[in-house]
Amino acid sequence: QYQLMKRTKILISPCGGVSFIGWFLPSNSAAIFIDFLDAPKGKSVHMEANTWSYLDIHDFYYEVAYDDFVHLNGSHIDPIMRNNPSGDNEAHFKFWKHGVSYKLDENKLETLIRRADKAVTSPRRGG
C-alpha cells in the first residue's frame, strides 16, 4: 500500500479513518475527499480538513447532500427522514445503518478531478 501511495497522483477517498492512507501521498499530489453529511443540519462537512492542511498535498472536497444517498433497493431518503434526521425510529436506523450508499455525480467528480490534476501539474509558487 505504501509503494502504491508513493506513486499516486490523485487519491479519491471517503472521509474518516479510511482516508488516512493519504498521509503516505507524495508531495504535490492531490486528494479528493467525499464529505460527511451532518444529517441534523443537512450540511456537508469536511471531516479532517484541518489534518490535511498540515501535509504538502492539494486537498479537495466532494460536498454531499441528501440526494447523494440511496438505499441498496434504489430508493432515496424518505422525506420524513429528511425532515426529521435525528429521529430514532427503527426505520430511520435501518435506512442509515443498513444499505445506504453514496451515489456520486460523475460530472461533479470529474470537475474535481480536473481541478486536482491542474493543481498537481501546475508549477509551484515559492520555494
Task: Note down, in words, how this protein is organized.
The chain has 127 residues and is of the alpha/beta class. It has five helices and seven strands. It has helices at 2-6, 49-52, 79-83, 90-97, 106-121; strands at residues 10-14, 29-34, 36-38, 43-45, 57-62, 69-71, 100-102. The strands form three sheets. The chain has a three-stranded parallel sheet with strand order 1-2-5, covered by helices on one side. A hairpin with a 4-residue loop joins β3 and β4 (43-45). The two termini are 30 Å apart. The model has no long low-confidence stretch (mean pLDDT 82).
Oligomer: single chain
Please give the alpha-carbon distance between the first and last residues.
30 Å
The percent of residues in helical segments reads 25-40%
Low-confidence stretches: none
**Helix-and-strand structural type:** alpha/beta
- Major sheet: 3 strands, parallel
Label the overall shape. elongated
For the secondary structure, the number of strands is 7
**How big a fraction of the residues is strand?**
15-25%
Q: Using only CA atoms, what is the Rg?
A: 17 Å
- The string of secondary-structure elements, in order, is HEEEEHEEHHEH
| Strand order across the largest sheet | 1-2-5
The helix count comes to 5
Q: Which whole number gives the mean pLDDT?
A: 82
Tell me the layout of helices and strands.
Blueprint: H1 2-6, E1 10-14, E2 29-34, E3 36-38, E4 43-45, H2 49-52, E5 57-62, E6 69-71, H3 79-83, H4 90-97, E7 100-102, H5 106-121
Parallel strand pairs: 1-2, 2-5
Antiparallel strand pairs: 3-4, 6-7
